[in-house]
């Protein structure tokens, strides 16, 4: 049986614990993966590397084209770049996909939510282009640039994903009423592309109204596609609707590479205590399996996680239990 190589980045803080949890669950399924572990971020510097993105890590990712990643700490101080942003740019991971799916048994205000946020991952204000501060510290500037190609790629990606997954509607979130150049271009391109998908419902919404309606009437949303900075905020808001970032996986997709990750931080305050909730990266591993065509295995993981949470079986403290990372992993594996 042939195997699929996957680069594994365990990350910093709670990263090694929760990624080990995901690997245990994957091994219980035995989906034919072959792992190459590399280090980036603070872990790479601690191991003696001179950069947060060592050449060995870059070479592995270029070779496998698949990454399972825990949370990574970008060291403080000038000169250190964000590892996440650097990886998105280096490997052209232009589409950020964040599913939000309600789970029975969580302390959530809503039930039955199933929303996917699709975020343009490389342009816009979030990319950090053109940042300057005057010598006297009284004026700061940043540049927001988005191209027609970036708009076309991400909006078409969202519509194609919606169609392939049997979704019903795509919503374009924008701020074209004020940001008439950048958001205006995004909206214009979105309107053009939407005409090619008459099998899908589509609408458009100003991003602040989108945030309000997500809180008040989230059931009206299905797939949301938006620009980089707005997507960063909206996807976290959606995670909050179902109980927090610990329950939300993320994917960064490009033409030749895909990275699947926990979307929360490295949580240094609980690192080493064995109580971190691994659900985010476990569900990210299910997205990875889905990406390589192992949909049934991906669904088995999702069903097992949902059942363990619904039964409140050995869940971690953030879910109201007294379980550990390891004990919750056992509960999921028993349900596979």
From TrEMBL:
One of its GO terms (biological process) is tricarboxylic acid cycle. Its EC number is 1.1.1.41. GO terms for molecular function: isocitrate dehydrogenase (NAD+) activity; magnesium ion binding; NAD binding. Residues 5-332 form the Isopropylmalate dehydrogenase-like domain. InterPro entries: IsoCit/isopropylmalate_DH_CS, IsoPropMal-DH-like_dom. Keywords: Oxidoreductase. PANTHER family: DECARBOXYLATING DEHYDROGENASES-ISOCITRATE, ISOPROPYLMALATE, TARTRATE, ISOCITRATE DEHYDROGENASE [NAD] SUBUNIT ALPHA, MITOCHONDRIAL. Belongs to the isocitrate and isopropylmalate dehydrogenases family. This is Isocitrate dehydrogenase.
């Amino acid at each position: 049986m042939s195997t699929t190589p996957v680069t594994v980045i365990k990350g910093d803080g709670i990263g090694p614990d929760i990624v080990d949890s995901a690997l245990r669950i994957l091994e219980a399924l035995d989906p034919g993966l072959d792992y190459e572990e590399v280090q980036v971020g603070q872990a790479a510097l601690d191991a003696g590397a001179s950069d947060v993105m060592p050449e060995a890590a870059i070479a592995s990712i270029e070779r496998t084209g698949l990454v399972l990643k825990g949370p990574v700490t970008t060291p403080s101080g000038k000169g250190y770049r964000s590892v996440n942003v650097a990886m998105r740019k280096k490997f052209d991971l232009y589409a950020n996909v964040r599913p939000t799916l309600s789970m029975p048994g969580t302390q959530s205000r809503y039930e039955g939510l199933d929303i996917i946020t699709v975020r343009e991952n490389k342009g816009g204000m979030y990319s950090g282009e053109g940042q300057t501060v005057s010598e006297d510290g009284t004026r700061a500037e940043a540049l927001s640039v988005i191209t027609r190609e970036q708009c076309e790629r991400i909006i078409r990606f969202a519509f194609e994903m919606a169609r392939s997954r049997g979704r019903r509607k795509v919503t374009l979130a924008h701020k074209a009423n004020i940001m008439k150049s950048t958001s205006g271009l995004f909206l214009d391109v979105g309107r053009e592309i939407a005409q090619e998908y008459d099998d899908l419902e589509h609408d458009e919404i100003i991003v602040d109204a989108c945030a309000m309606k997500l809180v008040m009437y989230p059931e009206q949303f299905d797939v949301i596609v938006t620009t980089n900075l707005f997507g960063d905020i909206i996807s976290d808001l959606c995670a909050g609707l179902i109980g927090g970032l610990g329950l939300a996986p993320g994917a960064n997709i490009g033409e030749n590479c895909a990275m699947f990750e926990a979307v929360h931080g490295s949580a240094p305050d609980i690192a080493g205590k064995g109580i971190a909730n691994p659900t985010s990266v476990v569900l990210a591993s299910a997205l990875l399996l889905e990406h390589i065509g192992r949909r049934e295995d991906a669904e088995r993981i999702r069903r097992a996680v949902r059942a363990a949470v619904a039964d409140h079986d050995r869940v971690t403290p953030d879910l109201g239990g007294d379980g550990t990372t390891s004990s919750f992993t056992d509960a999921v594996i028993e349900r596979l």
